[in-house]
Backbone:
């Protein structure tokens, strides 16, 4: 299947700092990219959907100024967690899809804010 | 009501058993469907797409019932390695993917 690379896989940061997570589709052009977070033993929670070149659509309850999403090209989307706090610690996963195909997931980023 | 609903389980079954999961969706405009598998602390991985005619891949069979708006996944001859969370996904015409909450399967020796 197609490959989606997410980086970093694990990051520990201090409270108040910002963290950028990258999501790249390596062998296809992703029309749409999705960002999720997942707490332990809980289901995936969609945070936002982004289409290349346009602003991301955020789910209700997700602060767009805190979780900045940029989808500058068909192969790269970034999620920046700004002014991170311990409650932002979670597993963040991206997925990428073309029109009418299945989505492929990145490996996920485990964020720990201390 | 959630757009895609699954029984969270867990389903505890012995090795060799047959187990089935159902998933219901509320958006009748959903166009395509998938089953993903997620292992603990890992990203979801595509298990199989679900076609209207039903499809089979080894021990796994997926079916779609548009009239009743549900999809199913049947696992035959369960293996210990099948233990995971199975996620049902619906895609609408706008390329929007909606995930169910997942069904946890635990296969015991």
Residues:
């Amino acid at each position: 299947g197609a490959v989606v690379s997410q980086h970093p896989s694990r990051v520990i940061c201090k409270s108040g700092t910002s963290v950028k997570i990258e999501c790249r589709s390596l062998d296809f052009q992703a029309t749409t990219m999705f960002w999720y977070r997942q707490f332990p033993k809980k289901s995936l929670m969609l945070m936002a959907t982004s289409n290349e070149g346009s602003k991301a659509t955020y789910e209700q309850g997700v602060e767009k100024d805190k979780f900045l999403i940029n989808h500058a090209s068909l192969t790269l989307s970034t999620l920046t967690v700004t002014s991170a706090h311990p409650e932002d610690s979670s597993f963040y996963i991206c997925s990428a899809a073309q029109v009418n195909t299945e989505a492929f997931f990145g490996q996920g980023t485990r964020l720990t804010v201390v | 009501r959630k757009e895609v609903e699954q029984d969270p389980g867990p389903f505890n079954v012995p090795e060799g058993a047959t187990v089935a999961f159902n998933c219901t969706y509320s958006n009748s405009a959903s166009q395509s469907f998938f089953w993903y598998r997620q292992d603990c602390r890992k990203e979801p991985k595509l298990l199989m797409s679900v076609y209207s005619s039903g499809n089979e891949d080894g021990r796994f069979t997926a079916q779609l019932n548009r009239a009743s708006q549900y999809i199913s996944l049947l696992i035959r001859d369960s293996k210990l390695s099948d233990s995971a969370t199975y996620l049902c996904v619906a895609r609408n015409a706008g390329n929007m993917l909606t995930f169910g909450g997942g069904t946890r399967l635990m296969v015991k020796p």
User: Anything to note?
Assistant: DSSP finds no helices and eleven strands in chain A.
